[in-house]
Amino acid sequence: MQSNIEIGAKLSRLCNRIFGSNGEVDRLQRLTGGASAQSWYFEYDDIPYIMRREEDENPLSEALSLNHQADIMTAAYNKGLKVPQILGKIEQSDALGHGFIMEYTSGEALPHKIFKTYEDTQFYEDLLQQCAVQLASIHSLPLSETLRHDSPMQMLQNLKQDYQTLGAKLPIFDWAFLTLEQQCPEAGEAVFLHGDFRMGNLMIDEAGISAVLDWELCHVGDAEQDLAYMCAPSWRFGHYENPVGGFGKIDDFINHYESISGCKVDRVRFDFWLIFSTLWWGIVCLRMLDSWRTETERTLERAVIGTRVSEVELDLVLLLEGDAPVSSAVRDWERPQRNLNASGATKASELIRALYEWDEGVIETAKGRDLFEARVAKNALAIVERSAQFGALFVRKQRERMQSIANLSEDNMAQRAASGDCDVINHLRLCALEKTTIDQPHYAAVKVAQRKWQNTPKVKV
Fold first, then answer.
1. Do the bridges between strand 202-205 and strand 208-212 make them parallel or antiparallel, or are there none, so unpaired?
2. Which long-range contacts does 421-424 make (Cβ < 8 Å, 24+ apart)?
3. Distance between CA 455 and CA 397 in Å, rounded?
4. What is the rounded distance in angstroms from the CA atom of residue 12 to the CA atom of residue 29?
5. 17, 88, 121, 326 — which has fewest CB within 10 A?
6. In the 8-state DSSP scheme, what is residue 211?
7. pLDDT, tens digit, for every residue of 348-396?
8. What is the spatial distance between Cα 100 and Cα 94, in angstroms, rounded to a whole number?
9. 0.85 exceeded by pTM
């Protein structure tokens, strides 16, 4: 791995070539995020820029190369879309891997900061319409033979093959695959798709969208896929009650899109792609974990992202459960309390808590990437502590529930849930609550599920 000093020196030479000058790179800083490729901020001749780079091939199998992305972004920029201008590509002689330099666009991409900064209802009404405008424009871009174009069934089969290759056996995921196979539509009218249009990939300023970022998942397919992807639960960022990116309603979003594009949205296809997109993110989380296990990307962030699978499981239960009656065990479920009264020899959970508190001290003084990684470590330690506290209890309860349901096994659980077996669905509801209690207890869907299942004011999902 190259040091910042090495990268800065090479980047200076790259900028000299691109801009035809003799300046020096200043304020070089790797930005947080960027699970598939690195993003770097820097200044050259006092002008800010962004470098996107990767040292090796992207581990996400669907992802386009950065060179290909640069070509697509240039075409979109020339069509007037909100896309940063590509200023130059990294060549082999630059010894920086693969990637490009693009203009710096002002604004904020982190959803929690956006929601904190902008609280006016009109701002989000305008933002919803702007999202529809950008998607309609993207869908009108010329189709390219270089982009992947699979039918919905082929995409589903590809996703299932990835899942099986990863060796995971998750009954809720299997239930989702069975449902999608039953509901899979025929190939429809093909359009150009962004593939990753969501909060987090939109640069937002006081006027709304200033840039659409991260074009690595572009492909050809149903317009409904892009629309549904924007509404996937994982991209609501704590605002579960607003399915469109955490700030809008689906009906309003679709109405804007239909009015702007002149195209009718098929709501049955939309519903299929909503489940698909939710499941897809769960498989990506598994891939991230696999990249850590195989030492392709041996970072703490990759290992922790793997724990987000439990979020997806809960999201999928809420999407798949239909009107299956809620059992008393689900209705009365409560999160167990931490045991703070240990005595005798040091317990594993106490060592974990000590590390957690030590890391809090690191966070107080860390900056930049170090601060980001310290926060990831804090999250990881909290997950391990909850696992030490509750893991054995939940395993025992799951085993007892399975034994109480006639002829239930790991092999037939998904099939029975897909057929509407209420006992199995309630078991999976509880499994999802238990897993998120360990991995992501503050995930917004936890409260949504409890309100929905425990006869308190209901939330429309």
1. antiparallel
2. 422/324, 422/325, 422/327, 423/327
3. 23
4. 14
5. 121
6. E
7. 888 998 999 999 999 999 988 789 899 999 999 999 999 999 999 999 9
8. 11
9. yes
